[in-house]
Amino acid sequence: MIASSNFTSCNFSFLPIRNHSCSRKSQLSPLNYSSNKPRSSFISLVNVINPNDIERATKYLAFLNNYDEKKKKKKGLLQICHSAFYVRTSQDPVLVPLKENGGRSGGSGGDGGGGGDGEERDWTSSFLLFTFWAGVMYYVFFLSPNQTPSIDMYFLGKLLNLKGDDGFQMNEVIVALWYIMGLWPLVYSMLLLPTGRSSKGKIPVWPFLILSCIGGAYGLIPYFVLWRPPAPPIEETELRRWPLNFLESKLTAGITMAAGLAIIIYAGLSSVDVWKEYFQYFRGSKFIHITSIDFSLLSAFAPFWVYNDMTARKWEGKGYWLLPLSLIPFLGPSLYLLLRPSLSAAPVSQSPTLLDDK
């Protein structure tokens, strides 16, 4: 109460005095009072208070305000509420704000993206994609149908040409599925090299592409989890070396699309009985079941990487009409690979430093 009364008295330069002994316009200044008359008890109380106590009380109130704001703000941004009873001085306590990367000033902390650059990474999409991949793998190993394990081994031997001509004719749809699964790693190699490489995470893509030759999408999705754009810049000399000169060739894209189209036509011309037999194998055979899911996953992720490659080549303005077509399994991405501009004609993504500066 004493401090509050002092604030009230000190925030006004003068106080009007209602006294019959003084004139109506006479005013009393508490700071410049030079009259010989006894002062009022209120003014005397102000002079009795120690100015150091007033300063300490002011600092204490400012500290309480700052402490409450620090609890409300996650990153510790300082907010000072000015009022008519408080005037901040250079000696008032000030809370040191936290750095944007979550660490305190002068420290090395932070939960950023690593490397001490204070950059945070949003792991939400990676976590969700990893959860999806883990769920798929759990289904493949523990929940998928496995009623014909001996038939699965026989089919695998026949498709690998390890079985001789024993008179058994393989289902045409299963044969087409097997061969088109062998073309998918080539399509993804042309989409991920070089525009799908990860520059910030330093995770090479080629081990996952090799793994996809055996595991398909089950081996590629972990790279999707770890992938961090943008891709590093490409030099002109690198385009003339293996494997980019092969993957960027229009001849490679044309042969891939022609082979895929022939396989799809071969399966599409099969009779209704052949398709019914395929669906029976799908419901009972673990090998056919997980291979069909693998084909669906590769077809589902392909449009995203088509768009990523298209934007890296600065071709989204002219090639936007290919995005809906990329939803067509295998044929859509293959058509894009055939029509996309070469890297020598269109710049790839800029270096990470330049992108961060923008």
Automatic annotation (TrEMBL):
Origin superkingdom: Eukaryota
Compositional bias (Gly residues): 103-116
TM spans (from-to): 127-144, 173-193, 205-225, 251-275, 287-307, 319-339
Record's keyword annotation contains Transmembrane helix: yes
Annotated segments matching region Disordered: 98-119
Keywords recorded for this protein, A-Z: Membrane, Transmembrane, Transmembrane helix
PANTHER family according to UniProt: PTHR36009, TRANSMEMBRANE PROTEIN
Protein name: Cardiolipin synthase N-terminal domain-containing protein
Gene source species: Abeliophyllum distichum
Lineage: Eukaryota, Viridiplantae, Streptophyta, Embryophyta, Tracheophyta
